[in-house]
Design a protein that fits this description.
Layout lengths: L12 H8 L5 E4 L8 H9 L5 E4 L2 E2 L1 H8 L3 E6 L1 E2 L8 H9 L6 E4 L2 H13 L3 E4 L7 H4 L4 E4 L6 E6 L5 E9 L5 E2 L7 H7 L2 E9 L2 H6 L4 E3 L6 E4 L17 H11 L2 H13 L4 H8 L1 H14 L5
Parallel strand pairs: 1-2, 1-10, 2-4, 3-5, 4-6, 10-12, 12-14
Antiparallel strand pairs: 7-9, 8-9, 10-11, 11-13
Helix pairs in contact: 1-2, 2-3, 3-4, 5-7
Length: 306
């Protein structure tokens, strides 16, 4: 892992993506049922990055966007869909019809891919797990090695460490050094940051280091794992960010309906992503009143720790 300095990490989203996300790199994204890195995905698409290998657990609309935009070459993970909304139209179209291109798919269970990130974070070559035993996944995934446990003699699966070129993780707040705080479900985010060669933190707000220290127990990712810090308010929309804004289910439903048809999807992509200069431009198109209402809904039910 490269050494990270304490200063000079704060930059724009455009700068961070241009510096760390390149054609053909491997990438993982933070968030699980919330805190999705949607703004970062939009910027990746705007910059025309291609041939990405995405190594992840389970992803929904942001992966559908990336695949529909032709940015993904390979997927290594457990689940691709659209959560409660339904199937992911662009992903299904890619796999079934090769439109805009056919992505490679390597199947893992959620536990299996989690163990890969754990191995990567510990800098060990593999991890042992009982996950996926008794399924067809090892039959079609040659990188899962089934052996006999040398202590008990029972079958055990070995999974290789994951070391993505870059991890992008959205958090509620961070300081300029990259100490990143999360409340709510954390998923595999800490291990992703430790396993990756480079880590970009996007956040709702950048706060002082003194504020971070005041609630040090919330710091999930320490500064020495982080290369770039980017303030991106509403950076998860239309997904939720615990304590900041609620899930925009109507917006997701509209996207899903548009994505069922390739031409309608391309029009949606052009309007909300490609013709937007940056994330603030996207927010203006969504509507600030709408975003503020989502914030009000979230803060009515979930209190920010303080």
């Amino acid at each position: 892992m490269t050494e990270r300095n304490c200063s000079g990490k704060q930059m724009s989203l455009q700068q961070a993506i241009k510096k760390y996300v390149t054609d053909g790199c491997s990438i993982t994204f933070g968030g699980f049922i919330g805190r999705d890195c949607v703004a970062a995905v939009h910027e990746i698409i705007r910059q025309g990055v291609k041939d990405l290998t995405v190594i992840d657990d389970s992803k929904t609309d942001m992966m559908d966007l990336l695949v529909g935009a032709g940015a993904v070459k390979r997927w290594e993970g457990a689940y691709l869909g659209y959560g409660a909304i339904g199937l992911a139209p662009n992903i299904r179209r890619s796999i079934e019809k090769g439109i805009p291109s056919k992505i490679e798919v390597e199947d893992w269970s959620n536990a299996g891919i989690s163990m890969r990130f754990l191995a990567g974070s510990l800098n060990v070559p593999f991890m042992a797990t009982r996950s996926m035993l008794g399924t067809d996944i090892p039959k079609y995934n040659e990188r899962i090695k089934v052996m006999h446990d040398p202590y008990e003699g029972e079958p055990i699966a070995l999974v290789p460490a994951a070391h993505p070129d870059v991890a992008i993780i959205h958090v509620q707040r961070a300081d300029a050094m990259g100490n990143a705080q999360v409340w709510g479900f954390t998923g595999n985010d800490e291990n992703k940051a430790r396993a990756a060669k480079h880590t970009i933190i996007t956040c709702e707000e950048i706060v002082t280091t003194d504020e971070i220290r005041h609630q040090g127990n919330l710091t999930l990712i320490p500064f020495y794992c982080v290369d770039a810090v980017v303030q991106v308010p509403y950076g998860c929309h239309p997904q939720s960010c615990y304590g900041y804004y609620a899930y925009d289910v109507l917006f997701c439903g509209d996207y899903h309906e548009a994505a069922k048809d390739r031409e309608k999807f391309l029009k949606w992509l052009d309007h909300y992503v490609l013709s937007s200069q940056n994330h603030l431009d996207y927010c203006a198109k969504v509507g600030w009143d709408r975003l503020h209402k989502l914030m009000g809904m979230e803060r009515h039910f979930n209190r920010i720790p303080g």
